[in-house]
Structure formats: C-alpha cells, structure tokens
Specification:
Length: about 280
C-alpha cells in the first residue's frame, strides 16, 4: 500500500511540474496559410484574423518595446535589449539596429555583427522564456498611404557563425532556391487578399504597436548548434520605406507547426507511465 501512495504522490508532483514558469509558445497555423520566401515561411496576422483562422490573444494583442521579445530593429530612440526574459533568468543582447531617419527610403544592416550574439545565450533565453529553441521573427510594418506605397521590399539572411565562417544560413528573398540574394527583393504586401474571397483586400498594416507578420526560418533550431561556441547574426535589407519606422523582433512566443509537443500531451505521456507502474505494483500485491 505504501508503494501505491508513493506512486500517486509522484503523479501529483508531475501534474504540478507542468505549470509553466515560462510563457508557452503558440503553434502557428499550417504552412498553407503562409507564404514562402525562399527558406522562410511568413504569415499575415491581419489576413488570418479577417478570415477567422486565428483570433484573440496573442494574435490581436499589441506589440512594442519593453516586452519579453528581443528587439532587432527599431526607430524608437533609447531602446536596448538589457535584461530581457522572465526573472530570474534574464538575458542581454546587442542594441537593436537603428532605422533610418528623414527621407531615407532604404536600409541595410547586420544585427549581431562581429560575434556579439552567442548561440548559447540566445538558446537559453528562448528556453527559459518560452520553453522553445526556435527563433521566430515578428514584424511591425508601418507603410501607410496609397496602395503602391504600402508595399515594402525586404531581403534577409540568418547565419550561424564560427568566427568569420558561416556554419549554416537561411535566406529570406524573392527566389525560392535556397541561395541568399540580397537584391532579389521579397515584397511585404500592404494589401493582401482574403484566403476565401480573393476580391476582398485586407490591409496588412494594423497600426503602430501591432505585429503585422510572423515569420520563421524552415529548419532553424538553435538546439542543433548550442554548446559549440557559435554566434548568431541577422542581415536585414529594406527598400521602399515611406512611412514611419518599422520594428523587428526575435521571439519564441510562436513556434512552427508541430515542432513543440503540447504540455497536455507530455503530461498524459508521463501520467501513462506512472499508471503503468501503478498497475504493475497492484499486480504484485
């Protein structure tokens, strides 16, 4: 009988252990609802909200500085990435790239240039804050005006570095060939048709402080590169900047479809093991 009580106690402990200290990552919808840009998949939040594919939190909540996400690019002054995450597991990263001011319509920069972002540190931040190891990018686009001016052209590349040597890389551009071309512009559309009624156009720009696009690099998982002394960097290029500044975040708040087992599933798996053990104990009584 004592053995049975111990096993039941362990089952209770297991249940309590799955109350997350981190913010659980939300799975993105199936890839069919996103657009492929070379080695990335991008989702329009406004489009998915309009068509009822997603709803409520966290899709319709405001983004902005001072949250759990790491800021990679912004025009807001005085922003940094010091002590990001959930206490006591806080991490610091380089300041975000500064958006151009005035009438400048182009931008090019590398966040993490010179080995300033440790893969291990970024992996730790994602694990401790979101229980994830996959960096996902949030983009707040701010291109108002006429239809022609609402579009923005972007290319980018995410790189895992060993000193000055590229270990692996993922390209975001307009040609789906797995080769990064900084001038093969991919278009972030200001107006996007509804999935179910192509004659209905939806504005991608949901206003300042709201994320407009979520994108992830297919096959990028920092768990594959941790513990090796590697660094992380991202090159970002834009043209057609006509409005106020955009913002780009790195986060673990979202995850590619089916990449992270749901806590409930893991709990049931663990509970099943304990119940099996309980059954074996009962048979021995």
């Amino acid at each position: 009988m004592k053995r049975i009580l111990i096993i039941l106690s362990l089952l209770g402990v297991l249940s309590a252990a799955w109350i997350p200290a981190s913010q659980a990552a939300v799975l993105l919808p199936p890839d069919v609802f996103g657009l492929q840009y070379d080695q990335f998949r991008s989702f329009s939040i406004a489009q998915m909200l309009y068509d009822g594919i997603v709803s409520g939190d966290p899709w319709d909540t405001a983004a902005g500085t001072g949250g759990l996400d790491v800021l990679a690019y912004t025009g807001a002054t005085g922003q940094n990435n010091v002590n990001v995450g959930i206490a006591p597991n806080l991490y610091s990263f380089p300041d975000p790239l500064a958006a151009p001011s005035g009438s400048t319509s182009t931008f090019s920069g590398i966040w993490g240039l010179g080995g300033t972002i440790s893969v291990d540190s970024l992996y730790g931040y994602l694990q401790d804050t979101f229980a994830s190891s996959i960096p996902v990018f949030l983009f707040d686009m701010n291109e108002p005006g006429t239809a022609a001016k609402r579009d923005l052209q972007i290319t980018a590349e995410i790189r895992i570095m060993d000193g000055t040597t590229v270990v692996d890389s993922w390209s975001f551009d307009g040609i789906n060939d797995g080769v990064y071309q900084s001038t093969a512009w991919a278009t972030a559309y200001g107006l996007i048709p509804s999935f179910f009624d192509p004659t209905t156009l939806i504005s991608s720009n949901r206003g300042n402080g709201k994320v407009d696009f979520v994108a992830y690099a297919m096959g990028l998982d920092l768990a594959d590169f941790q513990g090796m002394g590697y660094t992380f960097e991202g090159e970002f290029n834009m043209q057609g900047l006509d409005g106020s500044f955009e913002e780009l975040y790195l986060t673990g708040a979202f995850a590619p479809p089916t990449t992270i087992p749901e806590p409930a599933t893991l709990l049931l798996m663990g509970a099943g093991l304990l119940i099996a053990t309980l059954g074996a104990a009962l048979r021995k009584q």
